[in-house]
Amino acid sequence: MIPKVSIIMSCYNSERYLAECLDSLINQTFSAMEILITNDGSSDRTGEILAHYQGVDDRISVFNNESNLGLTKNLNAMIKKCRGEFIARMDSDDICRSDRIEKQHDFLSSNKHIGVVGTNCSIIDEHGISKGERKMPESNDAIVRKLIFFNCLNHPTIMIRSSILKNNLYDESFRTSQDWELWLRLSKMNVEMYNIQEPLLEYRVETDYLRKRKTSYRMNELSIKRKYLNDYPFHIWLMSCLPTLALIITPNVLFPVLKKLDPRK
Q1: Whose CA is closest to 206, among 137, 131, 151?
Q2: Phi, psi of 213, rounded to the nearest 5 degrees
Q3: Which of 20, 40, 160, 196 has the CB geometry, 3.0–4.6 Å to 119, for a possible disulfide?
Q4: What are residue 202's DSSP bridge partners?
Q5: What letter does residue 167 receive in the DSSP assignment?
Q6: How is the chain split into domains, by residue range?
Q7: Which residues does the chain have with pLDDT short of 70?
Q8: Cα 265 from Cα 260, distance rounded (Å)
Q9: Which residue, among 37, 32, 137, 39, has the nearest Cα to 86 in the 3D structure?
């Protein structure tokens, strides 16, 4: 049977949270799906855990890389293998609510004009303790207005029509923020986007995640903004780039302050 939804996920040294993540996928209320997972050259027990789950659930297909190729290349390779009408993303440290895939599948099936649907998400820390909810703008108009300032689609929550994604792969020149570049590109093509206003995923954010994002990560963000800001006046360009520049130059001790200013609340 051809699956209706293809879920794609890339793993690198993911043993700490992987079993909990996979349990949330295989126990979805929606069953007509395939789960494609790339083990991206892990050196821990990731491969062993994936092999166990592949033996338990025949909807899971695992692809093993001898070396680490990075998220963007892995996603594109899996997209080409997807058979579902819709493609959903997942990250190996997050947890899906049991009805996530069903709700997004039903939404896209009922709203033919929408190409991409994300959701709000609950924030949890490395211990699984709730830290609140990340709320995203709902309508396409609100998303497009804010997209140049911040990434307002939670990447591991999205589901997208396969016909769109197969013809518009992630840009492999970006090892990070590749999703943000894709949303901006699709918005220029008038692909409509929407965020379901429910937290259908538990999104894991480690306490010091801002410190771990290297300068190269922020430079990618600036490159993306430069690429799509040509049609905007200078003051919009400045307002868009200032937050990213602030993150590059801010001392580690001030990161908790910046975290409180995150617009995705």
Answers
A1: 131
A2: -80, 110
A3: 196
A4: 95, 122
A5: T
A6: 5-209
A7: 207-214, 237, 246-247, 249-265
A8: 9
A9: 32
